[in-house]
Amino acid sequence: MTRLPLRRRLGRRARSGASAAVAAIVAGLLVAGLAGCSGSGSRAAEPHAEPKQSSSAAPTPRPGAASGIQDPDTSSYGDVPTAGVVPVKVEIPAIGVTSGLEDLAIGPQGELDPPKAWLSAGWYAKGVVPGAVGPAIIAGHIDSPTGPAVFLHLHELKPGDTVRVTLSSGAVETFTVSGSRSALKSQFPTSDVYGTTPTPTLRLITCGGVFNPAIGHYDENLIVSADLTSATKPTH
């Protein structure tokens, strides 16, 4: 998996004060998803979702682009992450995943850089913090040139499975899988993945489909969606 391509930036406005970063996604630009997953092709490809951007220029936020869309009552979801709080760990018991989280950023080609380590997941650090209103993005490799990677079994997740994200504050956000979909990277559903949502959501992304040994990448993306169902309070 190389980097997450960017399609249209479909902003979001989280109470955590990250509205500027979210507005960038709303600004009608392309949003970044994993451009491709390079690996051995040793497993039957799982899809992974990545948005693309046609220009390497940094997206320009459009203030108020998501106005009125992401301001629901989140009282039933526990504490909304505050400024400076970031996710530090993701756990997916059903497929045996426990991983720290790298910060993923937009690369020079307008794509979201993938995690540097094959066995490490990463989160889109300029996007929504898990637990805040809107779609938070966590991505990982499906395999590597020498063997399995962190999201090798992501395709096995089914509705009802849980995903736990630990924040730097000590809070733990628990998400419940609602579904998954595969898409050709050339037809990545940017608006569905990065578009505004009225409640806290999570998107898990990896590669899949057919592995092309000539270019060392898969042709599809797998996107697993999950909704926040519980949250513990920060420990400090």
Automatic annotation (TrEMBL):
<dbReference type="Pfam" id="PF04203">
    <property type="entry name" value="Sortase"/>
</dbReference>
<feature type="region of interest" description="Disordered">
    <location>
        <begin position="40"/>
        <end position="80"/>
    </location>
</feature>
<protein>
    <recommendedName>
        <fullName>Sortase family protein</fullName>
    </recommendedName>
</protein>
<keyword id="KW-0378">Hydrolase</keyword>
<dbReference type="InterPro" id="IPR005754">
    <property type="entry name" value="Sortase"/>
</dbReference>
<dbReference type="InterPro" id="IPR023365">
    <property type="entry name" value="Sortase_dom-sf"/>
</dbReference>
<dbReference type="InterPro" id="IPR042001">
    <property type="entry name" value="Sortase_F"/>
</dbReference>
